[in-house]
Amino acid sequence: MGDLIDEYRAGGVYDEMATSERSIRSHYREIAAALAQLGTDDLTDRAERLSTAFRDQGVTFDLDGEERPFPLDVVPRLFEAEEWGMLEAGLVQRVKALEAFLEDIYSDGRILDQEVIPRQVVLSSPGFLRAAYGIEPPNGVRVQVAGIDLIRDEDGHLRVLEDNLRCPSGVSYVLANRRAMARILPELFTGQSIGAVSDYPARLAAALRAAAPPGVADPKIVVLTPGVFNSAFYEHALLARLMGAELVEGRDLVCRGTDIFVQTTEGELPVHVVYRRIDDEYLDPLQFRPDSVLGCPGLLNAARAQRVTIANGVGNGIADDKLVYTYVPDMIRFYLAEDPLLPNVETYRLIEDDQRREAVDRMAQLVWKKVDGSGGKGLVIGPDASVEELEILRAEVESRPRRWIAQRLVRFSTAPTWTGEALEPRHVDLRPFVVNDGERIWTLPGGLSRVALAEGGLVVNSSQGGGSKDTWVLGGPTGGHSRQPVMISGERIQGPPLQLGPRHPASQQ
Amino acid sequence: MTTALLSRVAESLFWIGRYVERAEGTARILDVVVHHALEEPTAHGEIMAERLVDAMGVTPAKQMSLGEATQLMCFESESGSSITGALAAARENARAVRQVLPSELWERVNTTWVNLPAQQLQSRRRGPSAFLAWVKVQTAAVAGLADTTMSHDQTWLFFTLGRAIERADMTARLLGTMPLDVLTDTGLVTLLRSCGGHEPYLRQASGIIDAVGVITFLLCDGLFPRSVLCSISSAAACIDAIGANRRAGWDRARGEIGMARAELEFLAPGQVLEDMPLRLLRVHSACSRASDSIARQYFAQGPATLWRNKTAP
């Protein structure tokens, strides 16, 4: 095998491609061969073209008012079908339990009565919204889309890092990545059977239609965006385009009584499902922040009257609370009477005195996160923090233990990543996307692998210099690695030869 | 009112239109089909190659892989049915009628041809996608320049007529690449994307992909410019404008196009999937018969006369 692969050195943690004995894991063999075949010069060229393609397509995210391309690595991240199958089962189980939890706490609160989760934990959560009480989703689904972040620990086991049940973003990069890879690095695809990602928008659209208010035959779906300055605007536009839905801002919507309409050149047209990509607190100035201009006054009332469906559900933020996250395994046992298939990362509940003492004692070895933090904000990595930072944190944690959690620092797995000169190990996480249409919980094969591009870096967020990798599930549902032609040839249609115009005689001129 | 045009010039303009549109249509179909085969594990390369060459009316000597079929349809420069061949033929025709083309338009056609070898070389290293994207941009520029820098007189009408007829034929061929009796959702999306119709369709159908809807859209949508019906209507409009001040009784090309348009325009939605192969063949033959009739009616120059030195008896 070529130099590129021979020279690859995994860096002391679990590596997705190479084992500790430096042999290539079987599911990575074909891609390793294809990469070696391409060689350094070609890879440099392809990497450049990938970034140009992203710039041209406007595949960007917004950072401090600046549009930036989201770097895509040339080396995909691979999963075997078998492992993916197990992961899928774990995700489905988790989403089921979380749906049951949301349903429960916004109605009877059985889980609180039985003290599986302390009532105090739920009531004190910034994500718990009293206004969500009494909003019944028509088909019982509150989590149309979930994005569940996972990492692979030192022993090679996948663990859940956090749940995102509000507006998980990133799926547009999955779609754009696959498209760009197939065009720019076609050599890598040959001979492999890779789970397709392109039907995600159709699945999401179906889940949204299924969530429409009762009695609506042909529901009108809109995607509600905060506007072009939102960091994920690219994604909102892409999803609207691929679902054939209208992309609206708050000012395009009007509420009349308990009905929501969208203003068009043909008058006001009724809206039945709002796939919102704005946070709860901005949704409806009558219920939440009165200064919000992003939402639509009266939207919540319309949802309460079941005249319109808000997806994902209002109040889902409670499940994203990182302290509530520590109780998800208990939820799975309580609601489903099953053992959790996917473990969490070991986490300290700082509201419990003995756990807090233990965590504070080994402060410098742990990762500290705010319970409602996202995008890597407010994150403190113990070993990297200065003594002063830790002192400030200690005081903060002692006075407000409910606002923080502490987790074991997982040196999560690395995957070979192109640095411009060589392949080097970089840490990767995974965000699979799960769509619930009420009948079936479906997982997009692959999801978004984010990679920390800095050497040794453990923060993968795009706002902190992260990139992404196309993620392949090999030997998809069509059965093993053998390519089964599902497309039966059908009736062949022989077109007539193309007509040709007269040639101009060249002789004698 | 239009000014009369030399028959020979009209013929060249007509064929520039056809060849440019052919290059674009072929590039669109290949771009989507080839990458569909990579992205979708259920797509089977050989079968797709087979259907592709069938639909494009190529009769290869042997069974081909998708890569070989792509190579053939991109670079088989000897024949006007490949992309490079069509672009070369368009340039050859354009050169002969430079005098009536806006220089920007001629230059675009010419630079496209000049750059073909370099693009072909590059595609060998980088795969076909950059080449196909380039072809799409070049042909779109040619079409755009024709629309905005040519006077819409007979020069433009013959050029546009050629494009319209070729486009109707291309969309019909595209429909022939898919097994219409066993269409999958991804297959339908591929069809739509091959003529840039995915997003317009989604907007119109609020995101619901179904076989009848998609086929109806590509065959007889009244607003999408690459639907067969729209292309045929555009051809009919050109024929009418060209023939406006002729006193001919029965216009054969007009008849061929009109019959084909009527069949699509008044097709009941429920019947759209029935007899598809036959329906597509009727579109092909309407296009080629119309093209022949136009040639007879407007381009006929009679056989070149060859005088022999005959000594008087």
Structural description of this entry:
The complex is a heterodimer of chains A (509) and B (313). By secondary structure, chain A is an alpha+beta fold. Chain A has helices spanning 3-6, 29-57, 81-105, 110-113, 119-123, 171-184, 186-189, 200-210, 233-243, 280-283, 299-304, 317-320, 322-325, 328-336, 353-361, 387-399; strands spanning 60-63, 66-69, 77-79, 145-152, 158-164, 221-224, 246-248, 253-256, 259-264, 267-270, 273-276, 309-311, 347-349, 366-370, 380-381, 404-408, 414-418, 423-427, 433-436, 441-443, 449-452, 466-469, 471-473. Chain A folds into 2 domains: 3-345 and 410-473, no CATH class; 346-409, Dna Ligase, domain 1 (2-Layer Sandwich), CATH 3.30.1490.270. Helices cover 31% and strands 19% of the residues of chain A. In chain A, the strands form 8 sheets. Chain A has a 4-stranded antiparallel sheet with strand order 5-4-19-20. Chain B is mainly alpha-helical and 313 residues long. The longest helix of chain B has 33 residues, at 7-39. Chain B has one domain. The relative contact order of chain B is 0.12. The model of chain B has no long low-confidence stretch (mean pLDDT 87). The interface between A and B is large, with 56 and 71 residues.
Describe how the helices and strands are arranged.
The complex is a heterodimer of chains A (509) and B (313).
Chain A: H1 3-6, H2 29-57, E1 60-63, E2 66-69, E3 77-79, H3 81-105, H4 110-113, H5 119-123, E4 145-152, E5 158-164, H6 171-184, H7 186-189, H8 200-210, E6 221-224, H9 233-243, E7 246-248, E8 253-256, E9 259-264, E10 267-270, E11 273-276, H10 280-283, H11 299-304, E12 309-311, H12 317-320, H13 322-325, H14 328-336, E13 347-349, H15 353-361, E14 366-370, E15 380-381, H16 387-399, E16 404-408, E17 414-418, E18 423-427, E19 433-436, E20 441-443, E21 449-452, E22 466-469, E23 471-473
Helix pairs in contact in A: 2-6, 3-14
Chain B: H1 7-39, H2 45-55, H3 66-75, H4 83-96, H5 103-126, H6 128-149, H7 154-176, H8 185-194, H9 198-204, H10 211-220, H11 228-242, H12 252-265, H13 276-299
